[in-house]
Amino acid sequence: MSSLETKQLSERFEHLLSVMSGNRFLQKQGIGNEVPFFICPYQPQESMNMELIQKQLIKQLHQKGVRVLEINLYDLSLKLLQKREIFEQILEIESSVSKGELKELLQNVLDSEEHLIPTISKILQDSEFDILFLSGVGEVFPYIRSHNVLNNLQSTAKDKPTVMFFPGKYTHSLESGASLDLFGLLQDDKYYRAFNIYEYKV
């Protein structure tokens, strides 16, 4: 774990702002030929504060001439369900089906490869931005998994830095590789190609 992750939120905010407004980050330097994906991990109980930090970052980056496009996966999922006219249907059946059946239904309807990523790709094509923020990761679990989103985004979002705000830990070890541990508990999302933004030098 980066020592910055345990610092006060104000210190983390200063680091994030310095990194994201710097040319090194915006020009994707210091990451070799890797996809410019960055994880911003935080404790799940800090979710409300992190939402405020994201808003402050967007505002202050805008003042520095850096444009942020924010995509909240939860909001986007709701829009997809409404667009496909199955949102009301899901609300109706929710109480009468098992959690497993509901999860399977949502996983099919919001499949990353078939539905979610094409929608995100369209948003990216239609937007002018310098950094992509991905949020709402905790709210869409378990029917959308963060590693699936990142894996499928690799070909679409490689031109600009992408920052995923992640309620949990992003750990690297030689034995087990890297894992996205949602809420600090679920250790089955293997993703190797992102960088911890707290370890990125300004």
Supply database-style keywords:
202 residues; 20% strand
β-strand amount: 15-25%
Q: What string gives the helices and strands in order?
A: HHEHEHHHHEHEEEE
N-C termini distance: 18 Å
Major beta sheet summary: 7 strands, mixed
How would you briefly describe this protein structure?
The chain is α/β, with parallel strands linked by helices and 202 residues long. Helices cover 42% and strands 20% of the residues.
Structure description:
This protein has 202 residues and is of the alpha/beta class. It is built from eight helices and seven strands. Strands 1, 2, 3, 4, 5, 6 and 7 form a seven-stranded mixed beta sheet that branches. Helix 1 packs parallel to helix 3. The longest helix is centred in the first third of the chain and has 17 residues, at 47-63. 28% of the residues are buried. The model has no long low-confidence stretch (mean pLDDT 82).
Secondary structure elements and pairings:
Blueprint: H1 9-20, H2 23-26, E1 37-42, H3 47-63, E2 68-72, H4 73-83, H5 87-93, H6 99-109, H7 112-125, E3 131-135, H8 146-153, E4 162-173, E5 177-182, E6 186-190, E7 195-196
Parallel strand pairs: 1-4, 1-7, 2-3, 3-4
Antiparallel strand pairs: 4-5, 5-6
Helix pairs in contact: 1-3, 7-8
